[in-house]
Amino acid sequence: FGITTDESFVITTTSRKEITESNFSELVQDGVTLYLLQSVDQILPSATKERIDFLPHYDTLVKSGMYEYYASEGQNPLPFALAELIDNSLSATSRNTGIRSIQIKLLFDDSQGKPAVAVIDNGRGMTSKQLKNWAVYRLSKFTRQGDFESDHSGYVRPLPVPRSLNSDISYFGVGGKQAVFFVGQSARMISKPEDSQDVHELVLSKEDF
C-alpha cells in the first residue's frame, strides 16, 4: 500500500469504526468494505464504491410487475402475461431442426388439482442449473450462466415482423415469473434436456415463500 515503516494508519469500516484486535471477528466479515486511513476522521480523498448483496422480499416477485400496472390503467393484462409464458417456449424451440410444437392448455378439472395454465413445448429442455437461473429475479437471459442464450455477442434485435418467432418478449428475464404470479399462486417447471435422460422440476409458490 506504499506505507512507510514510520507512518501510522488505521483500518476502519465505512461507518468509521476502527478495527482492533478485540472487535476484529465481529466487524470483519466476507464482503465488508474497509478503509485504510491515516486517522479515523480523515476526509476521504476520493469517492469510494461498496458492493451490497441482499435478498429481496418475496413480495418483490409475487406482487410487482407491469401486469398490475396494466390492470390499474383499465387494460386487460392477461394477454401480456400469457405472451410472457409463451416466450419461454419460443426461446426453447428456436433451434429446433424439425417442427416447433407449443401447446397452451387451460386446466379446470378439480380432480387433477387446482386450475392451471400449462404451456408445453418440444424445445431443447433445461438442466437443473438452467432452471435455477430461470428462477433468479432480474437475471437477464443474456447473462444466464450455462445457457446458450448467454452467448449474444453478435446479437441483433429481430425485425418487427418475425419478432414473435424469435423470443424477444421477456428481454430482461423478469416477465415470465411475474406473469406466473399474476395468473396464479405457483409455478411448476418440468424439463428434460435433449441430451440427458434426467427430468428436472422446479416449483415456485407463494405458499412456500
Automatic annotation (TrEMBL):
UniProt xrefs under SUPFAM superfamilies: ATPase domain of HSP90 chaperone/DNA topoisomerase II/histidine kinase
Which CDD domains does the protein's record reference? HATPase_SMCHD1-like (cd16937)
One Pfam family recorded for the sequence = HATPase_c_3
Record-linked InterPro entries:
HATPase_C_sf, SMCHD1
Source organism superkingdom: Eukaryota
Q: Which GO terms describe its biological process?
A: double-strand break repair
List, alphabetically, the PANTHER family matched.
STRUCTURAL MAINTENANCE OF CHROMOSOMES FLEXIBLE HINGE DOMAIN-CONTAINING PROTEIN 1
Protein name from the UniProt record: SMHD1 protein
Tell me what organism the protein belongs to. Answer: Centropus bengalensis (lesser coucal)
Recite the lineage of the species: Eukaryota, Metazoa, Chordata, Craniata, Vertebrata
